[in-house]
User: Fold this.
Amino acid sequence: MIFALAFLITAVGLMFLSHQDEEPLIAVFSLFPLGVGLLFFRNALLH
Assistant:
């Protein structure tokens, strides 16, 4: 469940990151879901 959530959040972050050419501001917002997704992955692996 946590892995699915982390993957979803990371995928959304990567999706926004791929649109950074059109809208630089989107890239800044994409770093947040990417960071949260990676944090979920790290916590899931540690426990």
